[in-house]
Amino acid sequence: MAMPETATDALEARLQAAPSGGGAWIRAARAAAEGRLRAMGLPGRRDEYWKYTDPTSLISPEVAPAEALTADEAPVFDGIERLRVVFVDGRLDAAASDPLALEYLEIEPLSQVAEVDIHWAAEVFGQLEARGQDPVARPLAALNTALATEGLVIRAKGVVPRPVSLVYVHERPSSDAMIHHVVRVEPGAELTLLENGPAAARFNKVLEVDVADGGRFHHVRAQGRDHDRQAVTHLFARLGAEALFKSFTLTVNGALTRNEAVVELLGDDAVAHVAGAAAGDGAEHPFHQDDTVFVTHAAERCESRQVFKKVLRNGAVGVFQGKILVRPGAQKTDGYQISQALLLDGDAEFYAKPELEIYADDVKCSHGSTSGGLDPDALFYLRSRGVPEAEAQNMLVLSFLAEALAEIEDPRLREDLEARLEAWLRRRTR
Amino acid sequence: MLEIKNLHVKLEDEDKEILKGVDLVVEDGRVHAIMGPNGSGKSTLSYVLAGREGYEVTEGSVTLDGVDLLSLEPEERAALGLFLAFQYPVEIPGVGNMTFMRTAVNAQRKARGEPELSAAEFLKLVREKAKALKIDADMLKRPVNVGFSGGEKKRNEILQMALLEPKLCILDETDSGLDVDAMRLVAEGVNALRDGKRSFLVITHYQRLLDHIVPDVVHIMANGRIIRTGGPELALEVERHGYADILEEAS
Ligand SMILES: Nc1ncnc2c1ncn2[C@@H]1O[C@H](COP(=O)(O)OP(=O)(O)OP(=O)(O)O)[C@@H](O)[C@H]1O
Ligand SMILES: [Mg+2]
Fold first, then answer.
1. ipTM above 0.90, yes or no
2. Contact list, A380 vs chain B (CB under 8 Å)
3. pLDDT digit string (tens) for A303-337?
4. How far is CA B223 from CA A119, A327, B41, B42, in A?
């Protein structure tokens, strides 16, 4: 892709900040990412993949300031026993974190792992990201690989007894954070990873997850409530045979959120579910939320589900781009994709681009996308029983989101997020 | 007491008058039945009483115990004691039947300044009422009316009525779609609620229901008006001869 000079300049300016030094493995990984990035260039407004979301503010040299909200409720996952690791404006805060030790778990800061010359992380760091660049370029992920110095390198070697919980705190109004995590779930091992918090005024995060045969990985994320924050996140996952991968994201508030998930089912009988619920109200602050998902079936009898629900009002914008690619030979694939928006007024917008690309003949794939308002008959039915209008609306909104939330397996986590959503809705209807 | 005076109703976004001067008084403790040909405006009357959107009252008034119903929101009417058992109960995926009913009961209690029921108290109450209507635990757990058979939906309406203990119960064709046994259950449910104060407006096409729920007064509605009022024998007349004679007589 030939780039106009200004775009090249912008890219080179960003790469100026590339870390020097470090061990051999990470220098190689960063150099490779720089190479990829130079070849593809930064995304622009004209890129097909960025048709509905303007990437300008995600790549601009200046970060638009964002006020950090002071919490008016207990943080999410508060009651859950977990290993907490805190990042403040993108930097690991060891003092605020639990000791990095848990049964069946290896967990190290990326900054430390980067200092050694040989590490298993080399097999994953930047590797899944690189695989995910084809057939669609994801330059902001390559930028992250090239620049990120913070993150965690995690290995589950058995059934890890408690979730690892990453808490992202946003303090400085113009913080610009880049974090890159690597996770490997060994054969038969199991890990739950939680993430919550706004992280920074601008946040670029990559999470690479390598799930070996029979491994199980659960991911539940609550994206921070700060109104003006901007975030671009990439989740790259590779699944071995009979592996299980489940990721759920709740997004409320945020001027701009782009969550990409790129999942490859490489071993037979693997299962991958990617789901999300988003609630946005553009009345006082802009809200733009984009889920971009790409699931590749490259083995037999695998199952994938994409379930995305968005509730939008007052000029809030929701985007869903989702693809299921079934490679030749991926017989008996079971692929499902649904994206739905509930538009609470005539002002909200939802753009959906569902895609199926199938090169095997014995598969079952379905997709659907809808947008519409609340069902007036249901609303009247509830009200006729004495439920006040606002409460009836909220009941219907929560019921609309229920299919996505049902993708969270652990009932404690699911109920916790449901309670957040309810509180969020109630704050907006009083 | 429900008092409807010269009620004229048209569709909000169409120039179509559906109710053309309805007069009706239902005293406390009474059971009134409304019969009438398809499309005569019976459901429309029930919707207008319950406060559904889409209709415009162009003339007339409706009061319940002296309170102007038409100026109230649907939930306010419910809290005042009005209940409509729908001809077509609405399916609400994703909302549990139990959660729905507890929310409704507590919302009404709250609106009336009464203490809310705890989950345990409500559970006890609902179990007792559900048993009488032969509604099993599974139906309580499922989403509101989703996947319910026609008869199950109607029984679910009566369960809600039993829980909410309204002052005025409007039953819009609650008997249609019920088998003989279910009809008896529903009628027993209704009769159990008859206490000399609570009043009922029973819309039906069939005399059969009125064998079980014996009305004090029977009205015939046609073309947006009540064209004839009488005792239970009027329902028998309709059953035997249809509406032709009555319609002719009225015109
Ligand atoms: N929203 C609407 N749009 C158009 N026409 C309507 C609407 N609501 C009611 N009508 C018309 O008003 C008339 C009365 O309808 P309504 O449902 O009240 O009749 P009904 O007496 O309950 O009939 P049935 O015995 O078949 O239930 C019918 O002609 C119906 O088509
Ligand atoms: Mg009707």
1. yes
2. 50-53, 74, 90
3. 999 999 999 999 999 999 999 999 999 999 999 99
4. 84, 64, 7, 10
Residue B57: CB partners within 8 Å, gap ≥ 6? B7, B8, B9, B48, B70
Q: What are the backbone dihedrals phi and psi of residue A299, each rounded to the nearest 5 degrees, phi first?
A: -145, 175
CA nearest neighbour of B172 among B60, B44, B15: B44
Q: Compute φ and ψ for A32, nearest 5 degrees.
A: -65, -40
**Residue B91 DSSP label:** P
CA-to-CA dists, residue B234 to A116, B32, B43, B201, B227, angstroms: 96, 12, 20, 16, 12
Which two tokens mark A219? 């991911």
Nearest to A304, CA basis, from A348, A367, A352 = A367
State the pairing for strand pair B2-11/B17-26: antiparallel
In angstroms, the CA A332 to CA B194 distance is 60
Among the partner-chain residues A376, A380, A387, the one whose CB lies closest to the CB of B103 is A387
pLDDT in tens, A213-229: 999 999 999 997 899 99
* Residue that is written with structure tokens 């995926």 in the block: B93
| 3-class secondary structure, A354 | strand
Q: Where are the extended beta strands (E) located within chain B?
A: 2-11, 17-26, 31-35, 55-64, 67-68, 82-85, 92-96, 143-144, 168-172, 199-203, 217-222, 225-230
Residue keyed to tokens 């079952």: A364
- Residue given tokens 């916790």 in the structure block: A416
The residue extents of the domains of chain A are 5-375
Degrees (nearest 5) of the Cα angle B22, B26, B27? 150
- For the CA of B224, the nearest ligand: 1
The two tokens of residue A27 are: 């220098």
Split at pLDDT 50, 70, 90, the class of A51 is very high
| DSSP 8-state class, residue A102 | B
Could you tell me the CA-to-CA distances from A287 to A231, A280, A283 in Å, in that order? 12, 6, 9
Amino acid identity, position A226: D
Closest CA to A290 of A220, A245, A341: A341
DSSP label at A212? Answer: -
Q: At what angle do helices B119-132 and B150-164 cross, to 10 degrees?
A: 130
Closest residue to B95, CB basis, from A376, A388, A395: A395
The label of the residue with tokens 């989740």 reads A235
Length of chain A: 430
Q: Does residue A6 carry a pLDDT above 80?
A: no
Contacts of A400 in chain B (CB under 8 A): 94
Read out DSSP for A68-85? PPPPSSPPTTTTS--EEE
* Residue linked to tokens 């979301």: A53
Amino acid at B147: G
